[in-house]
Write a structure and sequence with these properties.
7 helices; 11 strands; DHBP synthase; alpha/beta
Length: about 230
């Protein structure tokens, strides 16, 4: 079911339907500032497994987690370095995904994360309106593995079909490119993938001394594809 989500004055019923679907453990597609995402309640393991199945992906590539605001970070992550917090304050909401160490006490199962979680606050009003009500959602790009990322709701539907209960349609994604991924679990920050934010912008925000040299392969514990 595709539901309109263009205008805050009228999107209430669509958001209500998506929230209800998430609470039932169903999979939804939501708009973000980068590309459309497919997701579910991060704390319902069966729902997260359904997200991975919809994409055609296994536990070895766990989904990132979208959150409504930076205040949510400390409930989900531990030992977040100051340099990562600087990036969050500078680029959130926005096209930046940060891999951090997860709180070990959390009752969730995102897959084979090696004790990490990839977090992002999307710069999209409809997405944040949804997240404020659902809490953290396990969300990855709304496409089958190996296929192009969806920048419109109908593109996601063409690929994911009936594996998704609700598609929220907010028109074309503003950026149309995936988020930049930064791994903050090591001694220095490492850009895993460049996307909506350039490496130069990240270096400018935290300083070159906080960064691994460009091209260093490092070791990322989180291999999902963020929206």
């Amino acid at each position: 079911m595709i539901l309109p989500c263009f205008d805050p004055a009228t999107w209430g019923p669509s958001i209500d339907a998506a929230v209800a679907a998430v609470e039932r453990g169903q999979v939804i597609v939501l708009p973000t500032d980068t590309v459309y995402g497919v997701g579910a309640d991060a704390f319902q393991p069966d729902a997260v497994a359904a997200v991975l199945a919809a994409k055609g992906r296994g536990r070895q590539m766990p989904p990132p987690v979208l959150i409504p605001n930076v205040r949510t970070v400390d409930g989900l992550a531990r030992e977040v370095p100051d340099s990562a917090r600087k990036l969050m304050e500078r680029f959130w909401p926005g096209a930046l995904t940060v891999i951090v160490l997860a709180q070990p006490s959390l009752a969730w199962d995102l897959g084979d994360t090696n004790g990490t979680v990839a977090l992002r606050v999307p710069d999209h009003a409809a997405a944040r309106a949804l997240l404020e009500r659902t809490g953290p959602l396990a969300v990855t790009s709304a496409n089958r593995t190996g296929a192009p990322a969806a920048i419109r709701a109908e593109h996601a539907r063409d690929q994911l079909k009936d594996s998704v209960a609700i598609y929220l349609d907010a028109g074309e994604s503003p950026l149309g490119v995936a988020s930049t991924i930064v791994d903050a679990t090591g001694p220095r920050l490492r850009v895993v993938r460049e996307g909506g934010i350039s490496r130069d912008e990240i270096v400018e925000a935290v300083g070159a001394a906080a960064m691994e040299p460009a091209g260093n392969p490092g070791t990322a514990g989180h291999m999902g594809t963020p929206a």
